Amino acid sequence: MFVLTSPNITSSLFFLTGLPGLEKSYTWISLLFFSIYAMVLLGNCMILHVIQTDPSLHEPMFYFLAMLAFTDLCMGLSTVYTVLGILWGIVQEITLDACILQTYFIHGLSCMESSVLLAMSFDRYVAICNPLRYTTILTNPRIIQIGVAILIRSFLFITPPIIRLKFFNYCRPHILSHSFCLHQDLLRLACSDIHFNSFYALALVICTLLLDSLLILISYILILHSVLAIASREERLKSFQTCVSHICAVLVFYIPIIGLTMVHRFGKHLSPLVHVLMGNIYILFPPLMNPIIYSIKTQQIRSRIQRWFSLKKE
Q1: ∠ CA 66-114-54 to the nearest 5 degrees?
Q2: Cα–Cα distance, 205 to 282 (Å, whole number)
Q3: In angstroms, what is the C-alpha Rg of the chain?
Q4: What is the DSSP letter of 94?
Q5: Distances (CA, A) of 221 to 131, 206, 283, 304, 305
Q6: Which of 105, 267, 294, 309 could pair with 78 in a Cys bridge, judged by C-beta atoms 3.0 to 4.6 Å apart?
Q7: In the 8-state DSSP scheme, what is residue 95?
Q8: Per residue in 150-165, pLDDT tens?
Q9: How far apart are CA 272 and CA 279, in angstroms?
Q10: Helix 211-228 vs helix 233-266: angle between axes, to the nearest 10 degrees?
Q11: CA 45 → CA 115, 176, 189, 293, distances in Å?
């Protein structure tokens, strides 16, 4: 039974939403989601293993790629229990504390992925526009500083609104819109004053996701200007090819976010299944696609993986 009156009771339970209308197909759908999560975990672990074991990949570009793979790996681990738990009939509800913790990691990791993509765009900008100073600008100590700054920016700034979730009074039906917990979903169920959380979350989105996307766009405008100044067509094509993987990763990350935002903002009349599917795409699509993109489009990673599998066969 729900406890609805006291804002500080931690035993309140929230019901997770699976795939409305598809309950009879959960067995087959669970196989699909299990395969996706397996690919997320194995793909990102493989990227991390290749970078860690190959000394020739110990350079700034691949350090940032390792950060991206680690972020995607953690995103998969943060939601696998509730998503597969619902499909397998193991999990139907989640406690407030567990829900807040999952919310913290999902939003923190989302912000972290955006920050890593921004750092990767800076890496490409320096490599193409100022190649002679590349190794002096992106030194190992500076990369460590960037990594620490990304962690602080991603997880420290989201702490105030997440902590406040603990003390809200959730008097509305405790039914979440997804198979995992999101900040805006908990706000929808709260009867307390949520103005601080709403405005803080909006400001955080503007200062992180929106600002990051704008800076990434500016970096590529500068890269494009620099590349077009190169006389040789072959050199221009070679320079562009070094950016293809990152451009794909940026699109894979931002398009689902935009789609989910549009559905939440303008798709209230749509089926709940659409909201659930968009939420799962937002959570799973980038971690699934990034290892595939970098395995196919990055020659160094592709050749190491091919060599690794050929050794395994021998």
Answers
A1: 10
A2: 15
A3: 21
A4: E
A5: 17, 21, 29, 32, 32
A6: 105
A7: E
A8: 999 999 999 999 999 9
A9: 11
A10: 160
A11: 20, 31, 37, 15
Helices 60-87, 272-297: axis angle to 10 degrees equals: 150
CB atoms within 10 A of CB 307: 12
Residue with tokens 């405790």: 174
SS (H, E, C) 165-212: HCCCCCCCCCECCCCCCCHHHHHHHCCCCCHHHHHHHHHHHHHHHHHH
Measured CA to CA in angstroms, residue 279 lies from 5, 42, 224, 298 at distances of: 30, 22, 34, 29
Q: Which amino acid is at 116?
A: V
Query: What pLDDT does residue 162 have?
Result: 96
| pLDDT tens-digit series, residues 201-254 | 999 989 999 999 999 999 999 999 888 887 677 888 888 888 999 999 999 999
What local confidence, expressed as pLDDT, does residue 286 receive?
A: 95
CA nearest neighbour of 29 among 87, 89, 92: 87
- Give the integer Cα–Cα distance in Å for 113 and 272: 27
> CB of 78 within 8 A of CB of 99?
no
b (16+ CB within 10 A) / e for 5-17: eeeeeeebebebb
* DSSP class of 298: -
Q: How many helices (H) and strands (E) does the chain have?
A: 12, 2
Higher local confidence (pLDDT), 103 or 307: 103
Q: Is 89 left (phi over 0), alpha (psi -120 to 50) or beta?
A: left
User: What pTM does this model have?
Assistant: 0.91
- Nearest of 217, 195, 19 to residue 118 by alpha carbon: 217
Q: What is the dihedral of CA 254, 130, 244, 35, to 10 degrees?
A: -60
